[in-house]
Design goal:
By secondary structure, this protein is mostly helical. 91% of the residues lie in helices and 0% in strands. The protein has one domain. It is elongated, with a radius of gyration of 16 Å.
């Protein structure tokens, strides 16, 4: 396994873990602030937009490289 393959695998695994960890933090924030259903949905929508943007950017880069 060369460095490029290791970096790609590590990026995928660690980034997935980071996204899951951020989801847990948002869930805890919603629970502690007693946000309710709408507030929790708003938190996940607004704060999850960054994650969605990153995923869309990654997909677009891969599509444009083909």
């Amino acid at each position: 396994m060369n460095e490029a393959v290791f970096s790609q695998i590590a990026m995928l695994v660690l980034l997935t873990g980071l996204i899951v960890w951020m989801g847990i933090i948002v869930w805890d924030l919603a629970k502690k602030s007693q946000a309710g259903r709408f507030g929790t949905l708003a938190l996940f929508t607004v704060l999850g937009a960054g994650v969605v943007g990153f995923i869309v950017k990654t997909v677009m880069v891969e599509i444009l490289q083909i």
